[in-house]
Amino acid sequence: MRDHGDMARTRSSVTLRPEIAALPAYVPGARASRGRQMYKLSSNELPFPVLPAVGAALSDAGVELNRYPDMYATELTEALGTHLGVPAEKVIVGNGSVAVLAHILEAVCEPGDQVVMAWRSFEAYPIAVPVAGAEPVMVPVDGAGRHDLTAMAAAITDRTRVVLLCSPNNPTGPALTQSEVRQFLETVPDDVLVVLDEAYIDFVRQDDPTDGVALLDDHKHLVVLRTFSKAYGLAGLRVGYAVARRRLATGIRSASTPFGVNAMAQAGALAALASSDLVRDRVEQVVAERDRVTAALAEQGWSLPDAQGNFVWLPLGRRAAAFAEAARESGVLVRPFDGEGVRVSVGEPDGNDLFLEVATDWTTDQAPLAQA
Ligand SMILES: *Cc1c(COP(=O)(O)O)cnc(C)c1O
């Protein structure tokens, strides 16, 4: 007989899929340690307390947690449809837009398929793609941190099933324009799905901003991703959504986790959606702070990519980790990407001031933005 006691102390013999075993770990933004006041500028969160209407809705929803939520989040989906001006059938909600992206990939990718993405971009992408059985194809962003759409179009092969566009791009900051996305959609073959991740859409203040939803009528191979985690300040609640043509939406919904948006999240997101004036006001404050921070950095001599999200990117190259450590010592948590740069969220004015003090002592490293 096998000695089960011994077995318990050795590794499990169950093999993981090789692509799962090889995955990089998702590195979350640093969290403050107990007992010390730190400004958390490491996860692109909104620096405001939860919206008053959301707090009230959550305490009401808490009373009925013995019940399953509405499986399809009907009320939230309909409210989103109204908010966006599309039929509710085109909206798919999920446990954060990262989960919705996973369901999109699972719905369309087969083993060996390729997914083209810009790099550096959102670090959840190169994890979600292999989990779905597909292979990431990473196309370096240009020297200004922008998607190189020409190179991305050229990277499409017979094996490409999906292209991921992130606008504004996390972590470098620049946004695509509506004309660029439209032109790109015309270049990409009809059977290749283009996912436009507009997580930071509310913070964009450039000419010709993207509006993925407005492109859906003319482009059948587009899916738009949005989230309640950023402008709505609900990162902890986990609600995101996709908007797509009906047949695709049905497929993505089929691939989704049953009851994937919990009862609190449904109630909170509905209340947030109904607080649009306050949301807009808070976003304006963040944008004003972002403009103040970028102007101060320019004054210090930094030359930075265009910041269209609620964060700035310092291309510090090899000094990224050292900068993050210096910031931590001063009481500011930032997000370093080793060898490339540091992403710093726009937070409360005092935190931003402290970050600016740290930044005074450093200057732009001319290291390339991305090594694919
Ligand atoms: C923060 C972020 C999201 C949001 O993800 P959730 O799962 O909705 O919290 C999506 N895409 C990008 C590029 C992001 O930076």
UniProtKB/TrEMBL annotation:
Known cofactor(s): pyridoxal 5'-phosphate
Similarity remark: Belongs to the class-II pyridoxal-phosphate-dependent aminotransferase family.
Protein's gene: hisC
Purpose: Aminotransferase that catalyzes the conversion of aromatic amino acids and 2-oxoglutarate into corresponding aromatic oxo acids and L-glutamate.
Subunit: Homodimer.
EC number: 2.6.1.57
Annotated protein name in UniProt: Aromatic amino acid aminotransferase
Database matches in Pfam families: Aminotran_1_2
Catalytic activities: an aromatic L-alpha-amino acid + 2-oxoglutarate = an aromatic oxo-acid + L-glutamate
Aminotransferase class I/classII large domain location: 37-349
Enzyme class label: transferase
Alphabetized InterPro entries for the sequence: Aminotrans_II_pyridoxalP_BS (IPR001917), Aminotransferase_I/II_large (IPR004839), ArAT (IPR024892), HisP_aminotrans (IPR005861), HistidinolP_aminotransfase (IPR050106), PyrdxlP-dep_Trfase (IPR015424), PyrdxlP-dep_Trfase_major (IPR015421), PyrdxlP-dep_Trfase_small (IPR015422)
Modified residues (N6-(pyridoxal phosphate)lysine): K230
Organism the protein comes from: Georgenia halophila
Record bears the keyword Cell cycle: no
Organism phylogeny: Bacteria, Bacillati, Actinomycetota, Actinomycetes, Micrococcales
UniProt keyword list: Aminotransferase, Pyridoxal phosphate, Transferase
PANTHER family per record: HISTIDINOL-PHOSPHATE AMINOTRANSFERASE, HISTIDINOL-PHOSPHATE AMINOTRANSFERASE 2
